[in-house]
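Please decode residue identities from the backbone states below.
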């Protein structure tokens, strides 16, 4: 189901609770909502659709990838980026890393670890910030 985008900074600034297998529907709603906003959005976190759980989705080279309980284990090559967000107006500068290693649970709730670089790494960092209550 396509859900409305939350724009309340007080709600968005709350840390999200860990996700569990019963949150699979949240991932489906994120997928539908991301698809509805495809022209101006490359990733979303569950709190952006009103669910305070650690679930993100992002465009990974044309494929929508879901992560439950993502955690960045390693970062390298810091740089300054300028980002926008569906939940916030305008763009803001923020520190990002060109390479990150992430531990997460996939849609079958199997633990995975993967290294991401470039644009995809930047998107993941933005969405994990949402889970942590960090607004750019």
């Amino acid at each position: 189901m396509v859900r409305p985008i939350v724009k309340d900074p007080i709600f968005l600034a709350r840390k999200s609770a860990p996700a569990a297998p019963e949150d699979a529907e949240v991932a489906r709603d994120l997928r539908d909502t991301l698809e509805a906003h495809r022209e101006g959005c490359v990733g979303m976190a569950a709190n952006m659709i009103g669910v305070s759980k650690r679930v993100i989705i992002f465009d990974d080279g044309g494929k929508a990838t879901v992560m439950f309980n993502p955690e960045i284990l390693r970062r390298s090559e810091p740089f300054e980026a300028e980002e926008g967000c569906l939940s916030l107006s305008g763009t803001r500068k923020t520190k990002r890393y060109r390479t990150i290693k992430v531990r997460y649970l996939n849609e079958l709730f199997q633990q995975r670890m993967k290294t991401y670089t470039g644009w995809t790494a930047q998107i993941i960092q933005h969405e994990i910030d949402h889970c942590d209550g960090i607004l750019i």
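Observation: The radius of gyration is 14 Å.
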